[in-house]
Every structure is written in C-alpha cells, then in structure tokens.
Amino acid sequence: MTAEPILEVQHITKLFGSVIALSDVSAKVYAGEVTCLLGDNGAGKSTLIKILSGVHQQTEGDYYFEGEKVKFNSPREALERGIATVYQDLSLIPLMPIWRNFFLGLEPVKGWGPFKRFDIDFAKRTVRQELLKMGIDIRDPGQAVGTMSGGERQSIAIARAVYFGAKVLILDEPTAALGVKQAGVVLKYIVQAKARGLGVIFITHNPHHAYAVGDRFIILKRGRTLGIWSKDEITREDMIRAMSGADELEALSHELDELARRDAAKKQLELAQAEAEVADELEEGEKLFDE
Ligand SMILES: Nc1ncnc2c1ncn2[C@@H]1O[C@H](COP(=O)(O)OP(=O)(O)OP(=O)(O)O)[C@@H](O)[C@H]1O
Ligand SMILES: [Mg+2]
C-alpha cells in the first residue's frame, strides 16, 4: 500500500444553517484502494462526498488532494483535478445510444474548421474497447442506454470516469436499487477501477457489499466519525455490528424485555388479586350458606 493518501480531509465541519451535517470528520483515501463510507440515514455521507466533489464547501477544516491543500468552488474544478462522482441518477440520457452518453459533453472531433465533426466511429470503437477492458461486452454501442439494466448503466458511468482519467472515483450508493446479480456486476467494476489504480470511495448501506470490496471502512454517525478501520482490523461481524448500531438495538431489546416483564408481573398481580377476591366472595357465600 502507498504511504501517502491521494485525498485527505482534516477536521471537517459542515453547517447548513443551524443543522450540523458534519462535525470534526477526518478521513484518508488511498489510490488503488476501495474506501467504504458507511452509516445510517442522515449520517452525513452524501454531505462529505459533496464536499470532496466540489458541490459544497466545508464550513471548517482542511481538504488535501495529492498532498496539496485545495478548495473546489464547483464540481467542474474537482473533475478537472480527476475527482469523478457517479450519482445515483447517473446523468445518463436514456434515449441516447451508449456511445453518445459516454462522450456527452466531451465529444471527440475529426477534421478542422468547417469540416469539424463528431467522430462517431471513434466514439463507438472506444466505448466498446473501454467497456471490454472492464469485462463488459456490449454487442451494440448504438443501443439506447434506456434499454440497459441498472447495473449496466452504472458500469458505463464508471467506465466513462475511468476513461476520462479519473484518479478518484466517488460512488454514492451505486448498488442501492439493484438486485443481487446486478449489484454483483457493479461490485466487480468497483474492483476493476481499484485495480487500475483509482482511489474509490464507495457509499453503501449494505455491509456485505462493503466488506466484499472494501479495503478501508469509515463509519459516520450523526455527522461524526464512529470509527475508521482497515480490513485487517475489523471482522465482517464487528463491522455489521458497528454499522447497524447493534449495541443500541441490544439496549432497546433489554428495555422492551423489561417492559414486558413488568407487564407480566403486573398482570400476575392483578390475577392474584382477582383470585383472592373470588376466594373471598366464595368464602362469604359459604358463610351465608352455613348460616
Ligand atoms: N442542503 C442541505 N440543507 C440543509 N440540511 C442538509 C442539506 N444537506 C444535508 N442536510 C442535512 O445534513 C444531514 C446529513 O445528510 P446527508 O445527506 O449527508 O446524509 P446521508 O448520510 O447521505 O444519508 P442517506 O443515507 O439517507 O443518504 C441530515 O440531517 C440532512 O438533513
Ligand atoms: Mg446520502
């Protein structure tokens, strides 16, 4: 493993008005590794990656990229440095063919002056080659993206980032809407991107997906860092435990047990009282009968 992180944040705090989305979060991301960003809803994962990708700026703290202090004022600035983000909606256009989506906004041109035109053959060839490098064999680059599965679309977005020279690839819940098989396909491309030397940041709610591909795990909780582990420092079980707030669940289940116990005790007492009353009444009745 390389000693220097490609990307690092120190003591990041982010406020939205009075909402503290992140508080004193520090993290390191290494090239050729998958860093998983985990945590419950509202933990601050998306906020953190939006700071990394230039959508938001931190309120406090420092951001370093390739050892240099940076401040990105827009996603474009981050992208120019090689930080590519694939959001869940992917910004792909369903009705357009794969090759056109791949080069959207970055079209290769042939010729010059009035003869300058989009080099379609080059685009089609390149898309096919690039996807092949990631183990995806598309038969027809002219196929509309809308006809592809969610997993295939994710892989096109990933291949695109890799092709255009991303050094850091940020994926915000790429497997969330996918079935088991499609999620597996995307996980494979994450590993491919890592093998090609990119620093991958992978946000997921699924501990199994995280543990399958992750080298490093960062768990956020209500805007704070709950813990950072490399894979050899934590077992899958302990990671799931930390992620799911298992300790809290355990406390809750004790509390519920206690309530149930009290409830049962109360019922038993009521039952005993009722029985005693009946017994009393019977006794009274017997007495009357005797008299
Ligand atoms: N633009 C914003 N304005 C105000 N509050 C925001 C904004 N963006 C995020 N927040 C708040 O910051 C906190 C962290 O949100 P964030 O979206 O980063 O969580 P998350 O970990 O990505 O959650 P999820 O798993 O649900 O996507 C939440 O309380 C959220 O309401
Ligand atoms: Mg989010």
Write up what this structure looks like.
- By secondary structure, the protein is of the alpha/beta class.
- The protein folds into 2 domains: 7-238, P-loop containing nucleotide triphosphate hydrolases (Rossmann fold, 3-Layer(aba) Sandwich); 245-291.
- Helices cover 43% and strands 23% of the residues.
- The protein is built from 9 helices and 12 strands.
- The protein has helices at 45-52, 75-80, 98-102, 120-133, 150-163, 180-195, 207-213, 236-244, 246-290; strands at residues 7-16, 19-29, 34-39, 60-65, 68-69, 83-86, 109-110, 117-118, 168-172, 199-203, 216-221, 224-230.
- The strands form 3 sheets. The protein has a 6-stranded mixed beta sheet with strand order 6-9-10-3-11-12, with helices on both faces.
- Strand 1 and strand 2 form a beta hairpin.
- Helix 5 runs parallel beside helix 6.
- The longest helix is centred in the last third of the chain and has 45 residues, at 246-290.
- It is elongated.
- The termini are far apart.
- The structure holds adenosine-5'-triphosphate (ATP) and magnesium ion.
- Residues 45-46 line the site of magnesium ion (MG).
- Residues 16, 19, 21, 39, 41-47 line the site of adenosine-5'-triphosphate (ATP).
